[in-house]
Amino acid sequence: MFSPSRILVPTDMSEQSDRAIREALDIAKRYDSEVVVLHVARDPVQLCTVDYCLSEDLMNRFAAESMEAAFRAVRDQLVKFRSMGDMSIRIVVRTGVPHDMILKETDDEKIDLIVIAVRKDTPLGKHFLGSVANHLLRDAKCQVLLVK
Question: Do 133 and 32 touch, CB atoms closer than 8 A?
């Protein structure tokens, strides 16, 4: 029988992500699993434009502040789920291409199950899976649960 010990749930802090987090926490409660909540931010600012470049120091400070803000936003998102009880939940924030970083985190953390929301709120979303979900279904080495 499948009994995940480590569950990864990516979040973009949307209502769809809330549903995936709730599902991941339900599963974690049932199997006494650790939950890793992952937010992947794309590179927030370009270092240079046509006629101006930011200093490396300013870029590093901005990147650190952005990561801290993302961490706080995920922490605030998880407040909604306090009533589900105490569980082992860890927040991870990374920068990069979402599906690549999710797959990397899955390998690095030896994740057994990815629980991810399927976005259906766009005209094409009603007919197709999102690109992140497609990449995970195709490339993940562990089980993937899609949540509507």
Answer: no
Structure tokens at 52: 């101006």
Tokens 């650190």, residue located: 64
Q: What is the pLDDT of residues 38-55, one digit of tens each?
A: 999 987 666 777 777 877
Cα–Cα distances in angstroms (integers) from residue 141 to residues 7, 88, 102, 112, 116, in the given order: 13, 23, 11, 9, 15
Query: CA-CA distances (angstroms) from residue 40 to 9, 106, 108?
Result: 11, 13, 15
Quote the pTM value.
Answer: 0.86
Distance in angstroms (rounded) separating the CA atoms of residues 75 and 112:
23
Q: With respect to residue 127, please indicate whether it lies within any of the assigned structural domains.
A: yes
Long-range contacts of 62-66 (CB under 8 A, 24+ apart): 63/95, 66/41
The verdict on residue 86 lying in a domain is yes
CATH number, domain at 19? 3.40.50.620
